[in-house]
Write a structure and sequence with these properties.
The complex is a heterotrimer of chains A (100), B (376) and C (163).
Chain A: H1 4-24, H2 28-53, H3 57-87
Chain B: H1 3-40, H2 52-55, H3 61-70, H4 73-84, H5 95-111, E1 119-124, E2 127-131, H6 140-147, H7 150-160, H8 164-195, H9 200-206, E3 210-211, E4 215-216, H10 219-222, H11 224-237, H12 249-252, H13 262-287, H14 300-303, E5 305-307, E6 310-312, H15 314-342, H16 348-375
Antiparallel strand pairs in B: 1-2, 3-4, 5-6
Helix pairs in contact in B: 1-4, 1-13, 1-15, 4-13, 5-7, 5-13, 7-8, 8-11, 8-16, 11-13, 11-16, 13-15
Chain C: H1 2-22, H2 26-46, H3 50-75, H4 89-112, H5 126-136, H6 138-159
Helix pairs in contact in C: 1-2, 2-3
Classes of the chains: A mainly alpha (100), B mainly alpha (376), C mainly alpha (163).
């Protein structure tokens, strides 16, 4: 078994890539996908720590993260579709008014 | 994990054999399908593809005449046609994705078979070998995981072709496959509750017990509703008639592979046949006792067993079981062809309604009832 | 062997994630993400999380990403509708800030890691994780099912044109 530090550093790197995506990309769907990268980076950290302490609680946490991410994706994509129907754009910079 | 230790040679050999067996079966499947369709439509089927100069050979000429007459030469001609045809990529198509899509459709279909056990444990030298490429703990989850990737092939093919019909077909295909996957997974859960494992090997071995001393405890006996639901859902996953709305040639030309020709089209075609074989193999393993012959314990393949005073060695039993597996798979492939050529296509909304409003609630009810019965 | 796998799939996961962030075309981005998720599944296996690896492919690559792809195709977003590629000072600042943040995270992470002891036989298997979830985390599990139900209803409400 490898040093879990490798997995943890990789997870940090992936998390940052996702964060950069969320901050810099203006396409709502791409920003959304970047959030998924961040989720997965967190999951990797959970699993690495779980392995390090030989405690599967981290697996349970990652499991719940996946379930919540699936729910979030469904609702988020539905919102994107609803917004696209109204405004014909998914550019986050153009969606800046709170009126519907 | 003992996978790393047991990995090297045996696994490689098994993987290669299974891969080539499946590749080898797909041309036979095209022939089989043409013959079945001919049977269904009261025709002769392919019988004119001949190789004249081979038929003139002195000794084996008769064999080739026979093969030509029953149409076996046809798949060869088909393959030649596919390979030599122009490989057309539409203007303004996404070339990379367009080329990648057939591969994405083909590869998951192939590797799914890795966890399907096709024979009993046998003794080779001093070691005991599973006749299964990979005996994974997550077992059937692996199959579900890979079959959940199947929509990508269709979706990307349709999207990258830059064609409205293709896109429509792609949307239909991905929606349909996602919907039926849910039902497929849900209908198999009852089996896991009964056999207490996700390993396909364990599920198959669990089916060698006898109920009330006579009936083999096959999945179809203990989970009859699930057997029907699973078959319907898995069949819908292969996107063949009556579930072929993603292709729907009378509505949207050829759906997501409208813009495909030559070998790329051939790969989609092959993927479809491979999916059918995998479906049949999986279905047999889950519901029809896999490689088991009724009333014959799998252990006989290891020890051998005397029948009517004559000692039958283990490898004969193993071969018989392998034959039983192939026979069962062939039967379910045949059944799929029959359905394909008998039923007319559903309307798209009917496909969705069937999946979500009938099959899914039924499979959930099946889980509930199974749980209640097991508690009781 | 493990190190080689880690390096290979770790690199691929990073490349895939970069592909998501950098590619102009959302469909290509989604494909990159699917690739990255695959590599992550392999990395999960390297941490002996077999169930989670299968679920990663099943749930993420197989369901969530197909949904993404489906929506992208439904909205039929193409590159030209997204405007020219701009690189603003704000973006540069964001990248620099995140890299700094990453450094802050990575150093203690590396220090926290060590070579773990051997795992028991049921570690990360379907049985092990299942027992844990259904014994210790049954309430959260049931709550998740409620959450998913709420998400389903919400998604249908939002996306349906007419009620």
């Amino acid at each position: 078994m490898l040093n879990t530090g490798l997995f943890l550093v990789l997870s940090a790197v992936l998390f940052c890539i996702g964060a950069v995506g969320v901050v810099t990309r203006r396409n709502a769907i791409v920003a959304f996908m970047s959030i998924e990268i961040m989720f997965n980076a967190a999951n990797l950290a959970f699993l690495a720590f779980a392995r390090q302490h030989v405690d599967m609680t981290g697996h349970a946490a990652a499991f719940f993260v996946m379930a919540v991410a699936a729910a979030e994706a469904a609702v988020g994509l539905a919102i994107i579709i609803a917004v696209f129907r109204r405004k014909a754009t998914v550019n986050l910079d153009e969606l800046r008014e709170l009126r519907g | 994990m003992n996978t790393a230790a047991a990995f090297p040679l045996a696994a490689l050999v098994k993987a290669t054999v299974v891969l080539f067996a499946i590749v080898g079966f797909s041309p036979v499947m095209t022939w089989f399908e043409r013959k079945i369709s001919a049977l269904a439509q009261d025709r002769m089927g392919p019988n004119r593809a001949r190789v004249p100069w081979l038929e003139k050979l002195p000794l084996i000429g008769g064999l080739f005449r026979f093969l030509g007459r029953i149409g076996i030469v046809h798949p060869v001609a088909d393959a030649l046609k596919m390979i030599t045809k122009e490989d057309f990529v539409p203007d303004r198509a996404d070339k990379l994705v367009h080329t990648l899509a057939p591969w994405i459709a083909l590869v998951p279909a192939f590797v799914t078979f890795a966890v399907v056990p096709f024979g009993p444990d046998i003794r080779i030298g001093a070691t005991i070998q599973h006749l299964q490429v990979a005996n994974l703990e997550v077992g059937i989850l692996y199959i579900f995981a890979l079959s959940s990737l199947a929509p990508y092939g269709a979706a990307l093919a349709g999207w990258s072709s830059n064609n409205k019909f293709s896109l429509l077909g792609a949307l239909r295909a991905s929606a349909q496959m996602i919907s039926y996957e849910v039902c497929m997974g849900a209908s198999a859960i009852g089996l896991f509750m009964i056999y207490g494992s996700l390993r396909l090997e364990q599920i198959v071995l669990g089916q060698q017990d006898l109920l009330w001393g006579i009936v083999p405890k096959w999945g179809v006996v203990v989970q009859p509703l699930a057997a029907i639901l699973f078959f319907a859902a898995a069949y819908a996953e292969t996107k063949r008639a009556p579930f072929d709305t993603p292709e729907g040639d009378s509505e949207i030309v050829a759906g997501y592979f409208t813009e495909y020709s030559g070998m790329k089209f051939g790969m989609f075609y092959t993927a479809e046949f491979v999916e059918m074989i995998v479906l049949a193999g999986l279905y047999v393993s889950l519901f029809f006792g896999g490689y088991l012959i009724p009333w014959v314990p799998a252990g006989w393949a290891l020890t051998g067993q005397a029948v009517a005073g004559v000692m039958v060695p283990g490898f004969v039993w193993a071969l018989l079981m392998l034959g039983a597996f192939l026979l069962k798979v062939a039967f379910f492939v045949f059944l799929q062809f029959q359905i394909r050529w008998t039923l007319p296509r559903f309307r798209y909304d009917q496909v969705m309604r069937l999946g979500w409003k009938i099959l899914l609630p039924l499979s959930l009810a099946n889980i509930l009832v199974t749980g209640l019965v097991m508690l009781w | 062997m493990e190190l080689a796998l880690f390096v290979l799939f770790g690199t691929l996961a990073v490349l895939g994630s970069l592909g998501v962030v950098l590619s102009r075309n959302p469909v290509r981005g989604a494909l990159w993400l699917v690739g990255a998720l695959f590599c992550l599944a392999v990395l999960f296996i390297l941490t002996d999380a077999h169930l989670l690896a299968a679920l990663e492919v099943l749930v993420y690559a197989g369901a969530v990403m197909v949904l993404f792809l489906f929506v992208i195709m439904l909205l039929n977003l193409r590159e030209e509708e997204l405007g020219p590629r701009r690189f603003t000072p704000v973006k540069a600042l964001a990248v620099a800030g995140t890299v700094y943040l990453g450094w802050l995270m990575a150093v203690p992470m590396w220090k926290a890691g060590r070579v773990p002891p051997a795992a028991p036989a049921d570690y990360g298997t379907v049985e092990g994780v299942g027992m844990l979830i259904f014994k210790n985390y049954l309430l959260p599990f049931e709550m998740t099912s409620l959450l998913l139900l709420a998400a389903v209803v919400g998604a249908v409400m939002l996306a349906k044109r007419r009620m």
